[in-house]
Amino acid sequence: MWGEYTTRFLNSPMHCFALGRLGNVMEEVEGDKPGDSKLVKTGTAFKAGGSESFGYEPHLLLELSLERKAKRKAGVEHEGEGRMIHRADVLKDRTWALNGKVIRWSDKANYQPGGYAQVWNSLKPHFERVQQTIAIVTLKTGTSSADLISDDGKSEFYERRERRDLCAEEIKATLDLLWGGSTAVEKRMRLLVTERIFGIKSKEAVAALSLDKMERGLKILQVFEKRARADKAMLDKGELEVLAQLDIDIRHYDQGKAEEAELPF
Question: Do 143 and 122 form a contact (C-beta atoms < 8 A)?
Answer without folding.
Answer: no
